[in-house]
């Protein structure tokens, strides 16, 4: 089954309480696979502001409606960084608690590297 058919169920299953859309508009970044009526309906029904990359040959979004460009690559980049840790990639751990600890440790190392890089940029 394609992901677009499960988008509505996935958005219903989100366990993190989000702010009311009236107080703070929520944005949802999606890739080209969700550029269809099913994806647009799910985004609209859950009161998100959708940022869907358009398929080739379709007109782009209106340029004056965007203040900031969408950052769709954040998840892919983070997963790529996590895949550099062999224990996280292969999952040798038997117990979930051990794997979660290893994953959190890998995220802490990634954040430390990013923080030092940002600190070096601001020092220049």
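^ Assign residues to that structure.
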């Amino acid at each position: 089954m394609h992901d677009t058919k499960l988008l509505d169920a996935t958005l219903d299953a989100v366990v993190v309480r989000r702010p009311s859309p009236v107080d703070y508009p929520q944005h949802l970044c999606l890739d080209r696979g969700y550029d269809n009526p099913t994806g647009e309906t799910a985004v609209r029904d859950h009161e998100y502001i959708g940022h869907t990359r358009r398929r080739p040959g379709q007109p782009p979004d209106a340029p004056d409606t965007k203040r900031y460009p969408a950052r769709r690559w954040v998840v892919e980049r983070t997963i790529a960084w996590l895949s550099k840790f062999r224990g996280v990639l292969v999952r040798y751990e038997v117990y979930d608690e051990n794997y979660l600890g290893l994953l959190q440790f890998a995220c802490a190392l990634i954040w430390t590297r990013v923080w030092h890089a940002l600190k070096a940029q601001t020092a220049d």
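The beta strands are 26-30, 48-52.
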